[in-house]
Structure formats: structure tokens, C-alpha cells
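ok trying again, last paste got cut off:
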Amino acid sequence: MWLRPNRALSRRGLRRLIMILVALALTTAELGAWQGNVFAPLFALVESAAMAVALSVAWRAGDRCERITLDESSLEVRSLPGRRCARFQSYWVRVRLETGNGRLLLSSHGRELEIGAFLAEPERIELARKLKALLADASGQQRNQDQQRCKT
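nice, full thing came through this time. structure:
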């Protein structure tokens, strides 16, 4: 399962937005310079550069994602980009959705991990529901395999 934040713009759309905002700032600065404010174009350039950097940083934050892998013995959460990886035994992991702040936590053996922090609250609720169902199926299959081993 891949968890990704919603992005409103593509990279191309971001470039277009920045170009339009820079053009508007420079047009306004030219009008200011024409009326006697000779520093307006300089301030517009500084503002445009700062705005472009801020929008680019915010857009890059959308690159983060989490990959959740569940098999019969473990649940693994890998955060990308980066190298953070957490592994839990699928039989013991518990999914908990906190009501106050809406955090979605996986816990097992005294460890907790927040997942989906970049998701909206309805998306976290749906994810909690899906994970609980998948973990119940996995633990039910594990229990059935254990019973089969005991019978033979």
C-alpha cells in the first residue's frame, strides 16, 4: 500500500504559477518605478525569488510517501524519501486512531509509529479501517496455520 499526499499542481503547473506571479510582481514594480519608487523593481526581484523558493520547498514536501507492506509474519512501514523503516509482527501490531488530534498510530511491544501524518482526517480514518481489516485477516490466517500445524 502506498500513502502519498495530494498534490494540486504538477511540476509544469508549478513553473507556470511561479512565472505568472513573477510577471505580476515585476509589472506592479514597473508601475511603482514609473511613479518614482526606484527601488520597487529590486524589491520585486527579491520577493519573487523568495516566493519561488518557498513554493518549490512546499511542492517538494509532496514527494514524501510511505509504503506499507503486510505479509503473514510482519507489517513493514518504509518512509520515502529517506531510509526510515519500521517492522512490526503482524499478529501483535495494533492500529489506533487518536480522537483529539487525529493521529494514526501503529503500536506493538512498547513501540509506536505515526503513519499518514500528511493525509486528511477522512483519509486517515479510511486507512485505519483498511489496516484493521487486513491485520485481522492476516492474524486469522496465522491462527489457522498454527491450528493446522498442531493437528498434524
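cool. The mean pLDDT is 86. The two ends are 35 Å apart (CA to CA).
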